[in-house]
Amino acid sequence: MRESPRLQKYVRLLVEHRLILSLGLSTACGIVLHSLYPIHADDPLLLLIAYERPPIFHALAHGYDLFLYTTPFLFFSLMFSLAYIHLYRKDSELALGVLPTYLDPRARRKLSLILGEVHRQLVPNPGPFPYWLTIPERGLYTGIASFGSIGSGKTYGLILPAMRQLFSYRADDPERKLSGIVLEVKGDLCRQLQRILKWCGREQDYVEVSLDGDVRYNPLNNSLDPYAQAFNIASIITSIWGKGREPFWQQSYTDLMRHVILLHRIRDGYLTMVDLFRTVISAGTLEAMLSEVGSRFSTASYIGIAKDAYHGQESILSPLGFEWRQDADLYLAGWTEQLEQLLVQQTSAEFGVYTRKPYRPDQRERFESVRYWYWEHWKFFRSEIKTSIIQGIVVFLSLFETDPQVRRVFCPPKELYDGKPCAVDPNGRVLPPFDELIESGAVVGLNFPVALNPALAKTIGTMMKVDYQRAVLLRIPRMDAEPNRHYRPTVFICDEYQNFATVGGDNPTGDDRFLSLSRQPKCIPIVATQSVSSLKEALPNEGVKTLLQAFRSKIFLTTSDPETARYASELCGKEDRTHISYIVSESSTNANVGLLSGRTSSSKGSVSASKQYQKHKEPLFEEKIFFDLKNAQSVVVAFDGVSPLPPTYCYLKPDFLPVQMSWFEQEQINFEPGAIQKEALK
C-alpha cells in the first residue's frame, strides 16, 4: 500500500537527520534527568567508597552522569531505526507527488526564473516530491546557456518562458521593470515578444528595428573607438568569407577602415556604412578628403558671397577664385586685403569676411596621424595590393549600398540624428542610445531574419550587440558613483547564438569579456545555441572554451553532436559507484575419468564462492543519455549565485502548455498544442 507523500516527507526528514535529533533529544533528557535524579553523595555506602577508594567513587559518579545521557541516546536511536525499518519507503514505493503551485510571474515580488520541474535527480521518472528548479536573482546575473538540436525545445522551452517571466516582473513599476534586447534569426521571435509584452501590459516599451518599421539605426554612430569599430567589421568579414593563414589581410582591412572612420568623424562627426563604402572604393575621394580637412585646420579668413549676389555679377567674380561651398551655403575665396578692396571698388555685391572656427587640438592631432598614415604608408602600397584590400572590404560594405531599403534603415542621414526635418525620410526616427533605452525600461527587438541576407543579418546583430554591451558596462562607474540609486536589471536574450557570438583574444569587444563583467551592471544573459560544434565553427581558435566558462548555468537538451554530449557529461562530473563481483570456484580430489561415460568424476569435492566490492569513478550522466533525451527533457547544471546546484534531470515548461500540468502528463498527449488545450479544458 502506497503512503501519502506528505507523510513520507516528514518521515524522511526524521530519518535523514536522526543522528542530530538523537544527540539533541538525549542531551535535553540528560539535563532533565540530572536535575530530577542527581547522585546521592551522602549515601553511607558511597561515603565509604569515597573514603576508602576515591578513584572508584569518581568513576561511579561520572559513569552515573554519563548514563543519564547515553541511555536516552540509545533509546532514541532505537526509535528512529524502527521508524526507518517500518515507516521509511523508497521513492518507487511512494505515490507520485503533485507540483507546487506555479506563481504567476506578474505577482512575484522577488526576481527569479523558473527553468522547469524536477522529479528525480538521476532517473527520468516521475517522483513523489517534485519541485520547481528556480534560479534566484543573484544566479541570473551569471548567465544561462542552452544547448539542443533542432526541434529540442530551446525556443519554446527556455527563451519564451524566460521572456514571459522576466519582462512581466514588476511590469507596473516604471522604476523596477526590466529592460533588454532580443536578437533572433528566424523572424517570429519578435512577434512572440510583442505578444508577451502586451500580455503583461508593456506594449508601449517595445522598440523594433526592422526593414518595415520606421526606426533607423546607424551601427557606426556611437562613441566606440574607431579601431574597435573597424576591428568588428573586419572580424565579421573574415567570419563570413573565412580567415586565411596570413593575418596581413585582416590587419589591412582594419587599418584602412580605422583611418577612414576617423577622418569622417573629424570632418563631419558622423558617418554611415555607405559613406565608408564610397570613400574606400573611390581612388580620389580619400585624398580629396585629406586636402579638405587639412584646409579646415587653417585659421585663415574667407570672403563669402551669397548665391544670388554672386550670380548677379558672376562675370566679374568668377575670375577672382570664388568656389561654392555646400556646408557654408556661400561662395568662398581666401581673404586678402587686395581682394577686399577690389570688391569694394569694382562691384556692388554684398559680401562678408569669415574666420574659420579652429578645431580642437586633439582633432588636429588625430588628423595628423591619418595624414601621416596615408602619405607615408598607404601611398607606398603597390596598386594590386591596394586593390585586393579594397575589394575585400567593399564586397561586404556593398550590402548597405545596393539595397535601398537596407540603406534607408541602417544608413540614415545626419539630419535625423540632429533632430532636423529630413525630406528623404520624413517618417523615420532614430533608435535612441542604448544607455537611454536601458534606463527607461525599453525592450529592443532586432527583427532581421537571416533568410533575407545572412551576412547582413550577422553584421547588424553583432554590431547592435556590441552597442548594447558597451552601454551596459558603462553603468558600472555610474552605479559606483550613486550607490543609493536603484538600477533596473537588463536582459540580453539571443536565440541561435552561434550567429552572433564573438570572443576575445585579439578582439577588443568579445562576449567572454563582457560576460566576465556583466554581473556588476545587473545584466541577465540568456542564450540558446544548437551545439558546441556550431559555436566552434563560428569562433576562432579555442575561443569557445573561454566563452562557455562564462555561463555558469547550462541546460542540455537532446543533441546529435558527440562533442556536446561529451562536454555535458564531463561538466556533470563523476561519482564513486560500488561494483559487486562474484567468484565461484570448484575443487575436487582423487579425480578420474569414467570408462563408460568418459566424464571426470571424483570421490571428494568442494565449492567456494566469494563476493568482492570495488569502487569506480563513473559519470553521473553518460554521453548516451544526452542523445536519448526527449523533447523539453533536459539535464541542467545550475548555479544560484552562491553555490553550484547538483546536476539533475529537469523538464522544461514549453510556453504553449499549461504550467501546472506535469511533463509526464503532457508527454502522454504528445506535446500537441491543440490536444493539450482540449485536455486542460476537461
From TrEMBL:
What Pfam families does UniProt report for this protein, alphabetically? TraG-D_C
InterPro entries assigned to the protein according to its UniProt record, in alphabetical order: P-loop_NTPase, T4SS-coupling_protein, TraG-D_C
Q: Any signal peptide, and if so, which residues?
A: none
Domain (TraD/TraG TraM recognition site): residue spans on this chain: 489-620
**Listed GO cellular component terms?**
plasma membrane
Instruction: Print the keywords alphabetically.
Output: Cell membrane, Membrane, Transmembrane, Transmembrane helix
Q: How does it sit in the membrane?
A: Multi-pass membrane protein
Matching entries from PROSITE patterns are given as: PROKAR_LIPOPROTEIN
Name the major location. membrane
Keyword Kinase set for record: no
Q: Where in the cell is it found?
A: Cell membrane
Q: Where are the transmembrane segments?
A: 20-39, 66-87
Domain of life, per the record? Answer: Bacteria
Please identify the protein, giving its name as recorded.
TraD/TraG TraM recognition site domain-containing protein
The species this protein was found in: Paracidobacterium acidisoli
